[in-house]
Amino acid sequence: MDKSLQRFPPAANIIIILRDGETISPTAKTKLFQGDVLYILAPDNNREDLDLVLREEN
After folding, report:
1. How do strand 37-41 and strand 13-19 relate by DSSP bridges?
2. CB within 8 A of 20, min separation 6: which ones?
3. What is the per-residue pLDDT for 2?
4. Closest to 2 in 3D by CA, of 51, 56, 50
5. What is the pLDDT of residue 10?
6. Distance of CA 7 to the CA centre of its chain
7. For residue range 4-34, what is the model confidence (pLDDT) as tens digits?
8. Strand 22-24's sheet: what is its strand order?
9. Is 26 exposed, middle or buried (0-12, 13-18, 19+ CB in 10 A)?
10. What is the band of 57 on the pLDDT scale with cuts at 50, 70, 90?
11. Strand, helix or coil at 20?
């Protein structure tokens, strides 16, 4: 499972990714993988859109 950050709603900002004990500052080319911990800053009205993206299988 990997996801492109470009699939997230435009107002949702992934601030930091924790992966295997390392902190990653995301860029437009960063891929997300199963087990990543995301810190996301987004308006409340983007919650449903974020849930949909995060639950997608690919």
Report:
1. antiparallel
2. 35
3. 61
4. 56
5. 85
6. 9
7. 777 788 888 999 999 999 999 998 888 888 8
8. 22-24, 13-19, 37-41
9. middle
10. low
11. coil
Q: Are strands 31-33 and 13-19 parallel, antiparallel or unpaired?
A: unpaired
Written as one letter, the residue type at 45 is: N
Nearest to 28 by CA among 41, 10, 43: 10
Contact partners, residue 7, CB within 8 Å, separation at least 6: 53, 56
CB-based contact 9:24 (threshold 8 Å): no
Angle value at C-alpha 7, between 9 and 50, nearest 5 degrees: 50
**What backbone phi and psi angles, to 5 degrees, belong to 30?**
-65, 135
